[in-house]
């Protein structure tokens, strides 16, 4: 039993007979959510740079991360609606409404056009609100419906689906924009988003528990020491892994990579590298544990970012090398590390209110990502790409020992929770 989870309570026991079906249907939803993220935070900055907008204005697109950073505020209400005192969960209805709003928002963005930055950011923020609400239900559904031995598959669905969706949103979308036009590309993404939600709607049913006695709340989550330390772990890890990545697309554009080529690189390359490294990360977590995989990803990310900084300062580096470094950083090492990080999130979440606990940890990820995305745009505009990538590499090196200490501290806390329960059982 995972530390911090009361024995014999909560709905985690339902629906465990078909974990493969649960993982696959959730994977479709995670792909759809990441199409939105890839389009907003990778493709849109590249399109804007291709059309001449300055980097400091492009960095403002990260304001659309705000709902992902603040979704913990409405997660308790969503979780209480999703898990009524009696009867089946309402995950399906949340997914339907959120998916329809997201698809409609993408169609509206297509009509507005990319260069009208303020209304585009407003609509993308509304889409992010709908998608983040769906994500609360998805994460809670995953933790409660998958038994602990299958958590690794759930993490693979999350991270692998995220990179597959990001590859579509940042890769296929850019190719469609370059070959067709902006409005056709966004409407195509809206249709794909709806299609990806169909398997979950068909297969998400399950037996309803007779009674749910626990009242999900933010206070219960923040009252747990494991969650508080998990928030610190998430913040530090995201600083080290993500802060420079929003500038990789603009950097490649300024290095002479064409928009259509960048779309192909993000799409095919990101999908292959990210998905493969997500699977590798899941396997390594089972063998080495999440803490060791997180440290490995941090060290490798520091080396890759340092190489990108050197390339930016030196100039004249061959485009294939720049592309390889960008793919390794944004797809390979991110996937490897975040499988381990999300494994920690899932282990720390109480299945009686998993939507709140997992959401709270992810919100720290999103909040730090938003600050880093805006800050990276400013640093790159005024100090250059080399300073941006170099600072990120330094953060990764500094973060490694801190992450190691926090992981050991969490492991000790989990052991202290398990021993009294074991003694009581004896």
Automatic annotation (TrEMBL):
Domain of life where this protein originates: Bacteria
A cellular component annotation (GO) from this entry: membrane
Protein location: Membrane
InterPro entries given in the database record: AmpG_permease/AT-1 (IPR004752), MFS (IPR011701), MFS_trans_sf (IPR036259)
Coiled-coil regions listed: none
Major site of localization recorded for this protein: membrane
GO MF annotation terms: transmembrane transporter activity
Membrane topology: Multi-pass membrane protein
SUPFAM superfamilies the record matches: MFS general substrate transporter
Alphabetical list of Pfam families matching this protein: MFS_1
Keyword Ribosomal protein in record: no
CDD domains to which the protein is assigned, alphabetical: MFS_MFSD3
Keyword annotations: Membrane, Transmembrane, Transmembrane helix, Transport
Family that this chain belongs to: Belongs to the major facilitator superfamily.
Protein name per the record: MFS transporter (Putative signal transducer)
Source organism per UniProt: Microvirga subterranea
